[in-house]
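Record type: monomer structure entry
Structure origin: computed from sequence
Chain ID: A
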Amino acid sequence: MDLNSTMAAEQCEILYQTCGAQSFGGLDRGRLLSEMDEELVAMVQPFYTAKLNFTATPPASMLTKVFWDEPGFTPVVVQRDLLSRSASVMVYSYQEQGSKWR
């Protein structure tokens, strides 16, 4: 479909951290961080979703979709008992006639 539209893009950064479970004395923090990595990868699949107009009730479907790249992970940061990391995802959408990118 030729919409003759402009593509907009935004960088999304997701930050998360763990100090592990108290019952394990925090020794499971690496495993828990790996589980959070897997959860994040599962959340971004598939790499697109329908675009909805929420100015109407109920929300109306628009002509295009919102889509994104695979997440890029930063190295794990260790701060005392805390393990943290971030993932970055570039999100794209075509601007449809009459819509504004915010």
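Annotation 1: The chain has a mean pLDDT of 88.
Annotation 2: Residues 29-43 form the longest helix (15 residues).
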